[in-house]
# Entry
Amino acid sequence: MLNRFIGMPPNASEHGYMIDHMLEFAHWFMLVLFVGWSAFFLFTIFRFHRSRHPKADYHGVKTKASTHIEFMVVLVDVLLLLGFALPLWGKRVTEFPKNDAVKIRVVAQQFTWNFHYPGVDGKFGKQDAAFVNSGNELGLDPNDPAGRDDIISKNELHLPFNRNVILEITSKDVIHSLSLQSMRIGQDAVPGTLIPIWFKPIRAGTYEIICGQLCGLGHYNMRAAMIVESQEEYDNFLKEAAQLSGGGAAPPAPSSEGTAPANPPPSTTPPGQENLKVPSVPNPAEQPAGAPMQANPAPGGAPASGGITPGPHR
Amino acid sequence: MAQQTAHEAAHHEHHHEELGFWRKYVFSTDHKVIGIQYGITGLIFLFFGFTLMMLMRWQLAFPGQALPGIGGLFQKIFGDKMVLPDVNGHPGVMTSELYNSFGAMHGTIMVFLGIVPTAFAAFGNYVVPLQIGAPDMTFPKINMASYWSFFLGGVVMLASFFCPGGAAKSGWTSYSPLANITDQVPEFVAAHPVLGLIFNGQSMWILGMVFLITSSLLGSVNFITTIIQLRAPGMTWMRLPFFVWAQLVTSFLLLLAFPPLEAASIFQLMDRVAGTSFFLPSGLIVNGAQIHISGGGSPLLWQHLFWFLAHPEVYVLILPGIGIIGEVVANNTRKPLWGYKAMVFAIFVLGFLSFIVWAHHMYLTGMGAAVSAFFQTTTIMISVPSVILLTALILSLWGGSIRFTTPMCFATAFLPMFGIGGLTGIPLAFNALDLYLHDTYYVIAHFHYIVAPGTIFAIFAGVYHWFPKATGRMMNQFLGRLHFWASFLFINGIFLPMFLQGMLGMHRRWYDGGASYDISKAIVWGLSGFDWNKVISISAWGLGLAQLPFIFNFFSSIWYGKAVGRNPWDATTLEWLAPSPPPHGNFDHAPEVHRGPYEYSVPGAAQDFIPQSEPTSPTAPAAPALAH
# Structure
């Protein structure tokens, strides 16, 4: 109630309600303390103004009430900590769902979100920085069969609702932060690490994904869409995406192991074929004057804007 | 020891030779001159850092529109690459590069060149030796070195704006790897291999930090030694004014927290110029190509080293402020501080705990349950001494005879605003809630309530309070009132709406103020999140205007203010025993201390205050013990 009153948008994940409840409780607690303190404070500066109280009292407050109030504050803090904060966080990091979860890798780069689906085999292809080139931005090993059916989607994350989702998050260049505020979850994308988070979307819809950590000149516009849809729609998306990418994320290259950098894709392959490009979140046309935005292109590669357009997926 | 030194200095005063202008006012070793140098430089940097933000606020409220009026000048200063014309061809639209560099430099300047030098170094230098009855600091030459090291750091930081590529752009936190890979201009590096590596925004930022850290270390050693060694006879620990305690704890924080950042800064510099990889993991791909580094480092190592300084730094920013507020409140309520002992105890606990909470800035870096539980628990623990301090200050008002002098206005307003800052820290202390609030405007509002309406109001209170001591003249009260009410109104106009923006989910460091996001289009309290930017920006410019009466008052009062004697506020602490302004060596004769710091309205006394130097007599009886 208080959260909504000061602007918090609705929650869309299973665990999010608990976080909202805790925040609500914290806000009420803060409000009560602030109103209490302020009332005392305002009365005091009125009552003990020099004109109303010309001679100060050397001893001042003699009651022990403040000690009791402080003790209550500590108690509520401890309640928040032990009753809410520690269990909630424990659930986030120790109770990952086992088998039924949808697993997707999130690879951040300046200033694009790559979402890497394992494909029908459920396995991510091997990756190595040595294989990275303009046609294989995630450096999938072309010789690894597990990677053949992998799907990579730029700036658009599809999720089925009412299923547990595990996102494994990393970055290619600098620190980014995947902020899924509607899901009440976030995680820094730290290069050199692969960190999982999990949640369960419970409301279909399209939500914004924010980069929450300053990552360079295009940081302010490093946004992506999260589309939470029915299982059926999600399956259709995967099928279409797989067709579009020709059933393989990286074309098998006849390169021998260890010749880095990997060969560029054969010229017969349309560039970018293996990277399914779905239309990015439309750049806001209402940006007041595009001049500085356009004149100031992000050096980290094109801020993804539509590539090949697959058919509408719903 | 203390007595002897004070005595020697007093003796020395009778036959010291007259110093020339440069030794007296520029390369001075007198703590008061150094304090004033720190104060003026710090206030100028505060205004400069705020000016950067006023310019950024234009871009946030009206992204893509040229700055009105000063656009052409702005373009001349920062060049055609950094400032572009708008769609109509009017010059004056800052680029994302310039915006990010202003953002990084706003934080750096406010923290390291504005508040630390003003709240800690300026007031500390000027007031601490006077309050403990010392003729000067223990190491006057180190004190001078501290100021000039700080000055050099400031010059380096300012010069970095004019490097090829502009000033540092990676935030005041300078997270690696971003801070390692930015700000190298390839053509410049190719033309000047050595100079190109050093003369760029981020490298200059690091060099500037090294000077600033050195300055703080020299200063803090000096403060600790002075407070321990040079107290006047009779100035026992529990007779120290609260401000001195705050400075002592602050000095320890600086001394112990800064060296890790100094080391980390050098590491980052080596990463940039010498090809090391302290903070760079293997396999980094920038702009689609693998970068040539040895790899194997950790980006999180930088964050740990940085926040190991920067969390105690938060208390470095606020403790001197609380100290000033304590002095002003006791003096203007005409009664002792409530719970002096508890307050002293609280700042020690605060100082200690501030060293073990740093990772609460890193909740989203992927923390396990145990580490997270530790840092959440310590963070909650640190709220206890903070609550004690605020409660003690508010309870101190009760039973007083409150004089609303200009410093007292600022001190009174400090209390609820510091309260807002403290209370909004509660949700941020918890890892789970931080999942939503991390790096949103909620956080910005929270810490600015601590340092802007908090510390900066305390700085103003301190300036108005000690100005008559430093100049022998009062500042104008009407202009002071004007400054206070306008600042109070506008500063809340800036930071209160930020809580709403934060709850909407708007993040910090957005060059276009959130125009590209749908979440900033949601309406809260009648305006969209994005439109609240306009309210905030107008308040920020209003706050800028509100400083004009202060600037005018400050300078005109130096020459035309009402002349006053030694003790215009009827205060008890020792600085008011010295002449205004105090001469070299401070006191006419070495002071002796006979009582506690805040003996106001002692029952049976002839006046409503008894100075610390006053021996017990029928008109100045010994003060009864306080229950609190």
